[in-house]
Amino acid sequence: MNHYQRIVLASRPHGQVTPDNFRIETLPVPEINEGEVLIRNHYLSLDPYMRGRMEDAKSYAAPQPLNETMIGGTVGEVVASKNARFQVGDKVIGMLGWTEMGVSDGTLLRKLDTTHIPLSAYLGAVGMPGLTAWYGLTQIMQPKAGETVVVSAASGAVGSVVGQLAKQLGCRVVGIAGGAEKCAYVVNELGFDACVDYKAGQLEADLASATPQGIDAVFENVGGEVFDASLGRMNAFGRIALCGMIAGYNGEQISIKNARVFLTMRLTLRGFIVSEHMDLWPQGLQELGTKVATGQLKFRESVADGIGNAPQAFIGLLKGQNFGKQLVKLI
Ligand code: NDP
Predict the structure, then answer these.
(1) φ, ψ of residue 151 in degrees (nearest 5)
(2) Is the pLDDT of residue 214 over 90?
(3) 29 CA distance to ligand 1 centroid (A)?
(4) What is the mean pLDDT of residues 18-33?
(5) Residue 108, SS3?
(6) Which residue stretches of 211-270 are H helix?
(7) How far is the CA of 130 from the centre of ligand 1 (A)?
(8) Measuring CA to CA, which residue among 125, 215, 208, 179 is closest to residue 319?
(9) What is the pLDDT of residues 231-244, one digit of tens each?
(10) Which residues pair with 37 in a beta bridge?
(11) E-assigned strands of the chain?
């Protein structure tokens, strides 16, 4: 390969993301300097947080600069190395972004063992999304056996792990997802006790039927009406891990109608950003890796083919068109 392709942020979206917010570029493969490695990426991770980075707004992280490679997690293979820590052929995870190839000085680059865990899983169940689930569940919700746990965006990269881990803790686990197919998967394949299809038009009634003992802990990925429905079912001293509010990522106004229950039910809500808890990543990754390697943790992937399809796959992710962890396969 003499050349490779990457995708840069061409313009900032106003509301919905559109294909012309991105631009594909072809560049010559660079030479590496002492201490650097050249990586050929096999998979890119597409994640909802990228929508926030496309804005030039105050947030927990700096905005994605215009005309630079879109931010993102990647897994791939070292193809040239002038860094003693990495050999040609090593499989690695990094943050090289939406690009077929990239250079790293080794910072934020980690070698992967693919003997028992597929390479792509390091971007999902054994990566940042899995850790997000693990952190919110074990550090914030801390559910006990017999309690009822609800997780929204239940079939997705994060939600699917939350539900399976909560089941293993002995909880009653109820998912909320968009559509009958996603709900059937969550119950039949992942082992949730029930799943409510929020698109079926009777969210509150269906959630009430699925949570006869009320709700003790919520893992919230969506916000808006979905979150409000869970709030309306909370038991006293319930815990809420506020992980995401994807219903508002395109600028939609989302409000909380049931805010009164924070007082009346003496609830605890904590928002969190998983990348701020790196000290716990080794422990979480160890547990998740063991569970995936031994088949105790299942996952599903939506795989777009080729870097040119990354923008459309990302736009689809923000509309719920993915079914499981959204990836882009490069080779
Ligand atoms: P998913 O794989 O769950 O994909 C996103 C899903 O969100 C879609 O499949 C869709 O599921 C649902 N969705 C999309 N748009 C809407 C909408 N307008 N209203 C309701 N649901 C919608 O993504 P992830 O698992 O990667 O992420 C899940 C959440 O976790 C996101 O909110 C993300 O921002 C957050 N997150 C937070 C982190 C943190 O550190 N706090 C780290 C990682 C993720 P459906 O069809 O079921 O509606």
Answers:
(1) -130, 130
(2) yes
(3) 34
(4) 98
(5) coil
(6) 224-231, 260-264
(7) 13
(8) 179
(9) 999 999 999 999 99
(10) 81, 104
(11) 3-9, 22-28, 37-45, 74-81, 91-94, 101-104, 110-111, 148-152, 172-177, 194-197, 215-220, 234-242, 268-271, 301-305, 325-329
pLDDT tens for 160-199 read 999 999 999 999 999 999 999 999 999 999 999 999 999 9
Query: For residues 177 and 186, what is the distance between their CA atoms, to the nearest angstrom?
Result: 9
Q: Which atom of ligand 1 is closest in space to residue 48's alpha carbon?
A: 34
Pairing of strands 194-197, 91-94: unpaired
Residues 58-76: tens digit of each pLDDT: 999 999 999 999 999 999 9
- Ligand 1 pocket test, pick from 95, 123, 134, 158 with the greatest ligand atom count within 8 Å of Cβ, gives 158
- The C-alpha atoms of residue 328 and residue 12 are separated, in whole angstroms, by 22
User: 257 pairs with which residues across the strands?
Assistant: none
What is the value of pTM for the model shown?
A: 0.98
User: Where in the sequence of the chain do the CATH 3.40.50.720 domains occur?
Assistant: 128-275
Say if residue 1's pLDDT is above 90.
no
Burial class (CB in 10 A: 0-12, 13-18, 19+), 143: buried
* CATH 3.90.180.10 placement within the chain: 3-124+299-329
What gap in Å lies between CA 239 and CA 234, rounded to an integer?
9
Q: Which amino acid is at 140?
A: I
In the CATH scheme, what is the code of domain 3-124+299-329? Answer: 3.90.180.10
Task: Tell which CATH architecture fits domain 128-275.
Answer: 3-Layer(aba) Sandwich (3.40)
Region for residue 266 given its phi and psi (left: phi exceeds 0; alpha: psi -120 to 50; beta: otherwise): left
Q: Which of 112, 105, 109, 95 is nearest to 45 (CA)?
A: 95
Distance 302 CA to ligand 1 centre (A): 14
Task: Return d(Cα 157, Cα 191) in angstroms, integer.
Answer: 15
CA distance 267 to 261: 7
- Two tokens at 230? 């869970």
Enumerate residues lining ligand 1, CB below 6 A. 47-49, 129, 132, 153, 155-159, 177-178, 182, 221-222, 243-244, 246-247, 272-274, 317-320, 322, 325
